[in-house]
Amino acid sequence: MASEKTPQPSAVEVFKHDSLHLRGEIAGELVDENDFFGKGSIQLLKHHGTYQQDDRDVRGTRDEDGKRIKRFIFMVRSKIPSGIVTSEQLLAQLDLCDEIGNSTLRITSRQGLQLHGVLKSDLAISIQRINETQLTTWGACGDINRNVMCCPAPYKDQPHVQMQKTAMDLAEHFAPKTGAYHDIWLTDTDTGEKQLAACDSEATLSGYTGDDVEPIYGKQYLPRKFKMGIALPEDNCIDLYTHDLGLLGIVRDGKLVGYNLIVGGGQGRTPSAEKTFPRLGDPLTFVTLEQVLDVAAAIVKVQRDHGNRSDRKVARMKYLIHNWGIEKFKSKVEEYYGSSLPDPEPDVAHEVDDHMGWHEQGDGNLFYGLNVENGRIKDTDTFKLKTALREICTQFNPGIRLTAHQSIIFSDVAPENRDAIEQILRVNGIPLSEDISNARRWSMACVAWPTCGLSITESERALPSMIDELESALDDLGLSDERFTLRMTGCPNGCARPYNPDIGLVGRAKDKYTVFVGGTAIGNRLSFIHKDLVPSDEVVPGLVKLFEYFKSDRQDGESFGDFCHRQGNDNLLAHVDGQAV
Ligand code: SRM
Ligand code: SF4
Description:
CATH superfamily of the largest domain: Sulfite Reductase Hemoprotein, domain 1
Strand content: 15-25%
CATH architecture of the largest domain: 2-Layer Sandwich
Largest sheet: 5 strands, antiparallel
Helix content: 25-40%
Strand order of the largest sheet: 1-2-5-4-13
Shape: globular
Distance between the termini: 52 Å
Number of strands: 20
Bound molecules: siroheme, iron/sulfur cluster
């Protein structure tokens, strides 16, 4: 029994603890008569890569019999280190979204792919089919190391190749080792009968002796999600400082020789709880390539043993580091690692590249970065991205890489195929990246409505028209060439990383947003609240006023974020509203 002074573990901790290494009741509930899972399974299922949701566009409406509608659907997330997939794997996900999803596929802000709108009865088959293509949903969500992000640019130089190898090594090292995923979803799927047997909880658990070993996570996994990402100083395209553990490649004489480890980043906040906040990571140490996995494991284990397991709001590693300070955290990591660790190298992230457009990749072939607005792959009457991707993948079989800005890269393209690929895009109504405004190209929005259970406002469905409005105002101001990052989310959790770009729009109340400004495209400075609870139709007019001020008072070469940061909010408010604060 816990003493009065010992904080009680949160409900999720109890579910994990009692779950027989993430099995719980999932297998039995998968074949019961319900179209939903129970509370414990909902939490455990996240570790298997799926979220139970309900269609929020119909929630609460009434059917013909006057009964309130709640339509359960599932999001299925594939975890893709560095966002690297084959044409065949992308084609298989496109087929799945048509056959058992909502006919769209979503590139995520962590280089993953998501199916939306999957029914419970199709969950097992969708996970099996993803696995048949050698991708996995295992560990894509939950209190575990999530998808390892890494700069996806397919350059053939040693630093890029090495970074992407490290991402794969980390993904494998930190993948959960329990057989639960295999037992529940993948036990011999040759016949439908065998599949049903695998979904019978008795059948699954009768063979389980409780002897799974999780050398890194232990029985209860981590206190909260854990995120890793890798980038180079000249290209922080994966937003290194927002990760629990960021790895900044250190290049000497053209070779990547190791990494600066940056710890304690994270975005989510709850405005009503001051104890929560976004935080940028701090440099901890330099590690050689040989040390990476062991030092990373020491860091994860420190969080495992000392992270908060009673209050999930403050359970991310950023709070541990905030409370302890970086020195204490470092000595604990040294204790777990078994040796002292040096200071970090002086290198810091100083540029960012979105990898859009045509580039030589270094072996005679080209790659093309195609901007996908908010990552949504779909077909409409005039915009047929799904069709275009199918044609490109089928005809040219390029490598596919997903970016941290929810976009796509075709790699290994023979120069003679360049025109044909552009032609396929044009015929299907897809604007080329080169023809997209900077405002749109450097923006992204999280999913939000109708699938996200936590969304307060629209995001992905609202941003495109706001950008239309902003584009035209910037054109009038002669600022169309300005590069600035703009990110929107439907709640303060921050899934599109809105707290460090030039502009962040964060859903706060019905149809109202908090406007953040003052971050950077490189992602190395947090932004500040410019205005709170701004009605959606006042967001762009408010930004336009700031851009007018920027135009008249900016310094030479100053970015929008730097300008807002230099002015400070009192000046910005005094200027745009005449409100001195
Ligand atoms: Fe996220 C929860 C979508 C990247 C911070 N996120 C959710 C859930 C699962 C809602 C839920 O818990 O019920 C959303 C599902 C919506 C849907 O219908 O698909 C969701 N998050 C997403 C995606 C799909 C947004 C997107 O538009 O691309 C991204 C999936 C990435 C992936 O492939 O793994 C996504 N989420 C992020 C990021 C960005 C990142 O990691 O680089 C963040 C901020 C960074 C961070 O973690 O600090 C992020 N998501 C959150 C949080 C707040 C965590 C926190 O520490 O406060 C939640 C809520 C939670 O964990 O309690 C959340
Ligand atoms: Fe949902 Fe909020 Fe994340 Fe957007 S930021 S996907 S609304 S949890």
